[in-house]
Amino acid sequence: MADHQEANVTLPSEPVSVSAARRYVARVLTEWGLATDTDFADSIQLIVSELATNAVQHTFGQSPTFTVDLRLEREEQLHLGVTDSHPRWPRRLPAAVQQDNGRGMVIIRSLAKECGGRLTVTPTADGGKTVWIALPWSIPVQR
What we know:
Elements: E1 4-12, H1 16-31, H2 39-57, E2 65-73, E3 77-84, H3 104-114, E4 118-123, E5 129-136
């Protein structure tokens, strides 16, 4: 039994890639044994959508692509990361800010916490960053 499984896809930083990222993650997680009709699956789909949208909208054309990474470690923890090459890290907006956008990170943090997970941001070698979500995984992995 493998201690580690990985999958990733690199997509163009275009709005249509958000749904492609969502479909990719859904397909991989289904292959790994996650039922699509669960709250956990819904939360992951929303997290992927928000992270991919951020990678498309907030890199201002400075990141021509973004990469979605999935890592499952010892069937205990799922790591979902979205990497772009823009140097600006996500910022938390004050709760009082009234905007039509800019709440993605609040949503992501909240969903991760509800699922028992956490959010971290790490730098990349090319000056960009990866936003990682680590979530507990209790589903037996399909081989």
